[in-house]
Write a structure and sequence with these properties.
Structural class: alpha+beta
Strand order of the largest sheet: 6-7-9-8
Number of helices: 9
């Protein structure tokens, strides 16, 4: 069995719709063998090339055609490969929290890895180098909330926004909220403090 066939067999053993990267196979089969095999599998129509070094084991729907993973999934896979931390920011953070219905064409993630820009179809993933403080949040949602509120700005946050945000923050452990509020601007920390007061009433 050729290396290309071995790689194909390993990919087929997993689920459709997942991201495939050369690093998944390079240790086992070597850099050049992996590169050539993935290129041939793409030319055969078995894989879809999303960007340089990023492939998709495609999933198809009868009505929708090829189903693509969301930008967050792709970004998380890239970060995992690079052993880097990321957090969505700007319009991307607003959309993920439901504070905006607009899906940004340019998704921006703060990272402690290498800054880069990756084109995925008509969308762009940007990794922007940031200080460790911006990636130090312990809570799954609280770091995202901090970035979303920074994007909105203090004077643009509505009562409806606050209600949505508090529902997300209620899912966090109080100790995570307490830790993360220290990382936020004072006006955001005040909102976190209100929620902590709710916990300890």
């Amino acid at each position: 069995m050729s290396i290309r066939e071995k790689i194909k067999e390993e990919i087929e053993a997993g689920r459709r719709g997942r991201i495939i990267m050369p690093s998944d196979f390079e240790t086992k089969y070597g850099v050049e063998n992996t590169k050539k095999s993935l290129l041939r599998l793409t030319n055969d129509g078995f894989l879809e090339r999303l960007a340089r070094g990023i492939y998709l084991y495609p999933e198809h729907d009868e009505l929708l055609g090829m189903l693509y993973p969301d930008i967050e999934t792709i970004a998380e896979q890239i970060a995992a490969r690079d052993n880097a931390r990321i957090i969505p920011t700007g319009a991307q953070a607003l959309n993920l929290l439901g504070l905006s219905t607009q899906v940004p064409l340019n998704a921006v993630f703060l990272t402690d890895g290498s800054p880069r820009k990756i084109e995925i179809g008509n969308r762009t993933i940007k990794f922007r180098k940031t200080s460790p403080k911006n990636l130090a949040a312990k809570g799954k949602f609280s770091g995202l909330v901090i970035q979303a509120l920074k994007e909105l700005g203090k004077d643009q946050v509505t009562l409806e926004d606050v209600a949505i945000i508090k529902e997300y923050l209620k899912k966090e452990e109080p100790e995570h909220l307490y830790h993360d509020m220290k990382l936020a601007p004072s006006w955001i920390a005040h909102l976190f403090g209100d929620l902590l007061a709710y916990y300890y009433e």
